[in-house]
Design goal:
By secondary structure, this protein is of the alpha/beta class. It is built from nine helices and twelve strands. The two termini are 34 Å apart.
Length: 264
């Protein structure tokens, strides 16, 4: 998508009064907004020549579609747009699934306009800075590589697990690629966050820990070990590449792994 005159947000929301208020608030702070009351027509909108958006606000419960399925259709059509999922559901599994698929954030109804605008601005900062300041070894990556003994296909953002291939979202892929191509060194949290999310990302945010947990859980669910990905307590993370000698055990490492499993 080329540069737009001002940030454009596509709102997919069947609650007409809510969609109208959100559109008005976005326009008041200098953005443009397009509203869809259902999923039909969204994919076709993005497929038009020279049409794009900086952000998608996507309700999960639409009258004619499921937001996750619509998001998957966009991915299948190679339409990449930063996305905040919006829903009245509080089920944590839905939140995890939306992030695992590549969503950038998740907003639970009811929410304040201040929270909405804060999250919109945060995602726009992350994604705009990431596109302007591409992570080393991620955006221009073409060759296949291995992560925790699993083959990774960059062009498809695909992990070839023993039971079959699985496509992942851009954040999970970016994290895996950055770790793999900066292996055998301790990566401070701030370096890893800015390497994947962009140089203006908040280094004290908790998104990194959640995505590390998603990666570990994803591999474990497929019967694959993530022992090569290690937490360095109080510092960051370390990825041991294939065939290299392991680091000596560190104090509190097991405790750190256990505590991560209870953060979500």
């Amino acid at each position: 998508m080329g540069l737009l005159a001002k940030p454009k947000v596509v709102i997919v929301e069947d609650d007409a009064p809510l969609a109208r208020v959100v559109k008005q608030q976005l326009e008041l702070i200098g953005m443009s907004a397009v509203v869809f009351s259902q999923g039909g027509g969204v994919v076709e909108f993005f497929q038009q020549p020279k049409v794009g958006a900086h952000l998608l606000l996507l309700d999960l419960n639409l009258p004619d579609s499921n937001g996750l399925l619509l998001f998957k259709r966009l991915q299948e059509q190679r339409i990449a747009v930063p996305t905040i999922f919006v829903t009245g559901e509080t089920d944590e599994r839905t939140k995890v699934q939306s992030l695992d698929m590549g969503g950038d954030d998740y907003l639970t109804k009811p929410f304040s306009l201040a929270e909405l605008l804060s999250r919109v601005n945060a995602v726009l900062r992350r994604t705009t800075s990431a596109s302007e300041d591409a992570p080393s070894g991620v955006s221009f990556l073409e060759d296949e590589f291995f992560f925790c003994s699993v083959r990774v296909i960059p062009g498809e953002m695909e992990l070839q697990f023993p039971d079959g291939p699985m496509c992942v979202g851009k954040r999970i892929f970016g994290l895996i690629a950055y770790l793999s191509h900066n292996s055998n060194v301790v990566l401070p949290r701030s370096q890893l966050i800015r390497g994947v999310w962009g140089r203006f990302a908040n280094p004290r945010g908790r998104s990194l820990d959640q995505y590390i947990m998603h990666v570990r859980r994803l591999f474990q669910q497929q019967g694959c070990s993530t022992d090569q990905l290690r937490t360095v307590h109080g510092v960051g993370y370390y990825y041991q590449s294939e065939g290299t000698q392991a680091l000596p055990p560190r104090p509190n490492e097991d405790l750190e792994h256990r505590s991560e499993g209870t953060q979500l």
